[in-house]
Design brief:
By secondary structure, the protein is an alpha/beta fold. Helix content is about 40%, strand content about 25%. It has 9 helices and 8 strands. The strands form 2 sheets. The chain has a 6-stranded mixed β-sheet with strand order 1-8-7-6-4-5, sandwiched between helices. A two-stranded antiparallel ribbon has the order 2-3. Strand 7 and strand 8 form a beta hairpin. Helix 4 packs across helix 9.
């Protein structure tokens, strides 16, 4: 036993004394603290996930119809995001937040927190664009905001304000203290993070694939890749495109059956094209 322990120690010492492997040592990007904080907050939630798919044919038809009628295009992500806001608008408890131990805060405005990939200080990173009151905005306005977020200088009309950048450069202990107050105030959380998360990474994959994220939001939609499968049309097998998606929900607030019903309502909104209608009111 003693000889085995001595041999193990000798091997470890020999490994330590070996010259370091060749490579390049680079500083860890401070702005990735945004990802670390989101993961830490997401692990505090009891998240359930619902994987499903939607027929892409009616979505493509609605997008083509919009292009003809308005002389311009909108992205599929924009269409799906607006359809999600339409579905939530019919039952806003699906994006409620805990308010203390005995209350829920149900917001009237649906603030969509959409992940946008940008290059910051030489690093490609996902950052958030918050589309405020998406349930009261026309789909064309949402599309313009998304386009601006991909190209506008940070801190102006795009995501990642100077204050947010400074926050994520703070030491971890200070950020944890601030997050302590953020997570206890749904109004502050809404202002800083929105109420519903959307992430779209399907363009980076082929075949059926979707991300199941760690999320601090009550409701998060992940938009996955497009895959083909056979369906029956007039009693004949036809190949159709389907888009893979996932809904992540805080189980402290949303149960499985309501989440299933919401997913069904959301798919109906995608098929009927309600996202293209003008909102009833604006704010």
């Amino acid at each position: 036993m003693a000889n085995h322990f001595s041999t193990t120690v000798s091997q470890l010492i020999a490994l330590i004394k070996q010259p370091p492997s060749p490579g390049t040592r680079r500083p860890y990007p401070k702005l990735r603290n945004f990802i670390l904080d989101v993961m830490a907050e997401g692990r505090r939630k009891n998240t359930i996930n619902l994987l499903f798919e939607a027929d892409l044919t009616p979505i493509q038809q609605h997008l083509a119809q919009y292009a003809v009628q308005h002389g311009g295009r909108i992205s599929m992500t924009t269409y799906i995001a607006k359809s999600l806001a339409c579905a939530i608008d019919e039952d806003k408890t699906i994006h409620a937040y805990r308010y203390g131990k005995s209350k829920l805060m149900v917001f009237d405005d649906i603030d969509l927190s959409i992940m946008v990939e940008r290059e910051i200080d030489g690093e490609t990173m996902p950052i958030t664009l918050i589309v405020r009151a998406a349930n009261h905005k026309h789909i064309g306005d949402i599309y313009q905001e998304l386009q601006a977020a991909k190209t506008a200088p940070l801190g102006e009309h795009g995501p990642m304000s100077a204050l947010e950048k400074q926050f994520f450069e703070l030491p971890s202990p200070l950020r944890k203290i601030i997050w302590f107050f953020i997570r206890r105030d749904p109004h502050l959380f809404k202002q800083l993070a929105g109420t519903v998360g959307i992430t779209s990474m399907g363009m980076h994959a082929s075949g059926p694939a979707v991300i199941i994220p760690i999320t601090p939001m009550t409701l998060t939609l992940s938009i996955g890749a497009i895959s083909k499968r056979l369906v029956l049309e007039d009693s004949r097998p036809v190949e159709r495109d389907f888009i893979q998606m996932n809904l992540g929900a805080n189980h402290d607030i949303i149960d499985g059956a309501p989440l299933m019903r919401f997913a069904d309502r959301f798919k109906q909104k995608l098929q009927t094209g309600c996202a293209l209608a003008h909102p009833q009111s604006t704010q």
